[in-house]
């Protein structure tokens, strides 16, 4: 009998959502809850407002975030899958430090495309105490992220990327050093492709046709010319310029078929080490690619300023 792939062992959501606990912390969630055919509490995941309220409840209950909201039209990310990336990044860093999970503000993480939701810094800081620097090109998203940070009184650095062709350039300063960079890149090559992808997803879930993009999303969040491959290739190219300032560069890769192409690109970049880390999330498997220009000895000696 096949078993459903599980989230990371440290993921607080690996046993599903405890709606009783969530509603107790965020009573407004109750009006969005329904019952599935087996009688379990759930929400309508096609309803953007319901997903937003669920996220608000999850962030308050599990990550001590008292205020969280995003403007209409921005990506409303699924919390369990996003925090899984953080947990696997912790494992990646532990691999170079005698398997001890790294915790504390001396661990520096750079979040490329932090988004209006600020989801990676919020969950990563709560789980491991790391210091996050979030980078965003969209002014509206940056304004939302800044509000979430300030209302909650969090120490998160936010920077605007002013050049749409740049990823690391312009936002990694001369004095900066980071243990890890992370990114959820735009994965479609066009808005038309993004819409088609959403329709396929809803059909696969038996939801029929939907005019809404899955969980919303602005152009910069969903697509870029050349799609995921082009974006990550540009990331690799620019990472060479900051090879001694970042211990590990990483990015999610939505399409498994893209992995081999990215391996070839990274081979040409002459990286010292390359890892593909698979993450099981419900009915699907996602993955991220990680590369470093430092050998094992250099990685063991790496420290941030």
Automatic annotation (TrEMBL):
User: Does this UniProt record's set of keywords contain Methyltransferase?
Assistant: yes
Biological process according to GO: rRNA base methylation
| InterPro entries per the UniProt record, alphabetical | METTL16/RlmF, rRNA_lsu_MeTfrase_F, SAM-dependent_MTases_sf
A GO molecular-function descriptor: 23S rRNA (adenine(1618)-N(6))-methyltransferase activity
The enzyme's E.C. designation: 2.1.1.181
Q: What is the lineage of its organism?
A: Bacteria, Pseudomonadati, Pseudomonadota, Alphaproteobacteria, Rhodobacterales
Give, as one word, the top-level EC class: transferase
Homology family: Belongs to the methyltransferase superfamily. METTL16/RlmF family.
| Name listed for the protein in its UniProt record | Ribosomal RNA large subunit methyltransferase F
Q: Name one GO cellular component term.
A: cytoplasm
> So which domain of life are we looking at?
Bacteria
SUPFAM superfamilies assigned: S-adenosyl-L-methionine-dependent methyltransferases (SSF53335)
Job description of the protein:
Specifically methylates the adenine in position 1618 of 23S rRNA.
Give a yes or no for keyword Metal-binding in this entry. no
Subcellular location as annotated: Cytoplasm
Q: Which organism is it from?
A: Sulfitobacter marinus
Give the signal peptide, or none. none
Primary location recorded for the protein, binned into one broad class: cytoplasm
UniProt keyword terms in alphabetical order: Cytoplasm, Methyltransferase, rRNA processing, S-adenosyl-L-methionine, Transferase
């Amino acid at each position: 009998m096949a078993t459903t792939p599980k989230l990371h062992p440290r993921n607080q959501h690996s046993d599903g959502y405890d709606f009783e606990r969530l509603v107790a912390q965020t009573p407004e969630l109750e009006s969005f809850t329904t019952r599935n055919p087996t009688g379990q509490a759930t929400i309508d995941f096609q309803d953007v407002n319901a997903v937003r309220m669920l996220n608000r409840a999850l962030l308050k209950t599990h990550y001590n975030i008292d205020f969280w909201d995003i403007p209409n039209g921005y990506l409303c990310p699924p919390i369990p899958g996003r925090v899984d990336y953080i947990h696997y990044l912790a494992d990646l860093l532990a691999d170079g430090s005698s398997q001890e999970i790294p915790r504390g503000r001396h661990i520096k993480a750079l979040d490329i495309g932090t988004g209006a939701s600020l989801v990676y810094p919020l969950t990563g800081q709560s789980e491991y105490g790391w210091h996050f620097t979030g980078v965003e090109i969209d002014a509206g998203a940056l304004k939302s992220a800044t509000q979430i940070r300030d209302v909650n009184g969090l120490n998160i650095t936010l920077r605007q990327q002013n050049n749409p062709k740049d990823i690391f350039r312009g936002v990694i300063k001369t004095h900066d050093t980071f243990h890890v960079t992370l990114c959820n890149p735009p994965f479609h090559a066009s808005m038309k492709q993004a819409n088609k992808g959403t329709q396929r997803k809803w059909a696969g879930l038996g939801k029929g046709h939907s005019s809404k993009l899955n969980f919303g999303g602005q152009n910069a969040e969903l697509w870029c010319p050349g799609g995921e491959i082009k974006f990550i290739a540009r990331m690799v190219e620019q990472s060479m310029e900051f090879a001694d300032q970042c211990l590990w560069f990483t990015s999610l890769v939505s399409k498994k078929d893209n992995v081999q192409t990215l391996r070839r690109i990274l081979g040409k970049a002459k990286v010292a080490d390359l890892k593909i880390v698979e993450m099981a999330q419900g009915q699907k498997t996602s993955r991220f690619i990680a590369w470093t220009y430092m050998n094992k000895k250099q990685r063991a000696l790496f420290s941030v300023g």
